[in-house]
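sorry for the late reply, my laptop died twice this morning and i had to redo everyting from scratch. anyway the thing you sent over, i finally got around to it. pasting the sequence first so we're on the same page, its 78 residues, then the predicted structure underneath. double check i copied it right bc i was rushing
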Amino acid sequence: MLKSSKNADAAQKFVAYIVSQAGQEVLRDGTSFEYPVASGVGAHDKLKPLTEMDAPTIDPASLNSPKVVELMQQAGLL
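ok and here's the structure:
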């Protein structure tokens, strides 16, 4: 959450709900078909199991580029 957030309390409540079991079930059962992050909440039947997917290859050094730093500064994260 950004320091500059005008509704930090509401945002924290939203994050707490959305990562809760109830919130994860809403995301799973709705039309967004999101993979749950809460333990004990299974994925929607239409989603391919994560264990059957190939993870992308990411070079950590590429995350420290000037463009990434610029975007994070614009977002108020740095």
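DSSP finds three helices and no strands in the chain.
thats about all i looked at so far, will dig more tmrw
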